[in-house]
């Protein structure tokens, strides 16, 4: 196995696969040419072919008005506002992904007022390579169009998606687009490689949305029309005074530093009060000395700060802002002077650690001085933070293996109780044997593992959607169905229901609610197994808790004289019986439910005795349920 430093080094090495691709293909130069055509066309986008590649190039000037027309502090809003183009993008915890509303509105205007949809479909039928590109705000239009095109692949099978010719987005000086949830979706769907954002060293626009809109609104209103106007006017009549320009850059730099610090500090409270925007996809930082690729959010935010850190706020304001529009010149220097490890003098790198050398190469390529020890130290920490989820996932696998013995013990406990004629729920509810005590220890041991697992997921200490991998969804579901009945039994045997109410209303551990939600959030929720025999475990992990409530309702029904209360009790009991009927029909109950001395069969007998007198509805339902029960008892060998 490779050493951690070797693995970490791949994040910062100048030989990043995307960097190699950009250099060898010449794609950035072609994309810049297409972006220039879009800028000069006066249209929202142009379609052109360069060397057998189909380019959709978007204009920045057409998006300026929408970009500046926002109301919230940072301009963010729901990605589904005013459209259903991104409805396939689902967030696992139900939170909507956020995007800049001005940019979203600009994209929707292009969709509505142009033939973009028709031309995209036409290009896809031709099965040529499709590259979407744009400069500045045009890059944001290209990114949203790419995201929209990619959403159409979500419903396809993995095999079909693998063979599809996915679009590639290459932008220049593009602002940040969406929040952490949008970035997470892109990572989850393995789309990071479909987005590459080229960022020049001192370009302000990729950082500007990290600052509140109230601090940038006036300068942007003056700057953007100026920068996207005819290039001949760029050195004349600069729209901001030197003080205004310095104040604007200082605000952008300060808030970029805050965003970078928040990522490394992992302070959720601080982050929540700052800009919601996070990098999406891969970033290629370029300078006159070369270029470097970064693909983790934390590393990108760090580089957005460090590459702008040395800007001279009191220098010629015009020259600093012109950096945004001169990517054509920058690219020439970038690919002429690409940095490699051999280009760096050993006098500047006092180490033979390949990880530290890789960081030095990346910083040099992006235009950050090698002597900047703070940048090196932060990126080293960032790299290890980025690799930590993979290490944690390995630890989870190890810990999971360690609790298998406890799981097997509980399975044995369940089987042995059934052989004695009483289910493991009822046995655990009235413990008087050594094996009951051992089952409790095993219950706590397994539950501790899942508590730690959930905590790691909530702290983002595991890879994206690690908990939604089929292995863990199935394992969590099996744990819930096997162990939660013991938790329910413990709750009632301890008398907690007398103080806190029934289990489902005052006693269910958040752990089970979370694990159940994971199953609903996964793509496995709709799967069900067609059975002809009993299930190994009752599929409703809260079945026994529902039974305890039904027992209480039936007891109250015997003594209640208030007709309205009686009607309410009957309604609740009928709901439970309906649930039981469905479980039996689907063979979703385990053998322990049908044991003669078990809690359910005893309750059913009592319910049957008063059924015909109290329950006027569904008079044939009892016979139906009992026939199902008899079938299950006759063919009671448990199978999955």
TrEMBL record:
UniProt-annotated location(s): Cytoplasm; Nucleus
Annotated ranges, domain EDS1 EP: 409-613
Cellular component annotations (GO), alphabetically ordered: cytoplasm; nucleus
Fungal lipase-type domain segment(s): 97-209
Highest taxon of source: Eukaryota
Example of a GO biological process term: defense response
Chief place where the protein resides: cytoplasm
UniProt cross-references to PANTHER family, sorted A to Z: LIPASE-LIKE PAD4
Protein name listed in UniProt: Uncharacterized protein
Origin species: Taxus chinensis
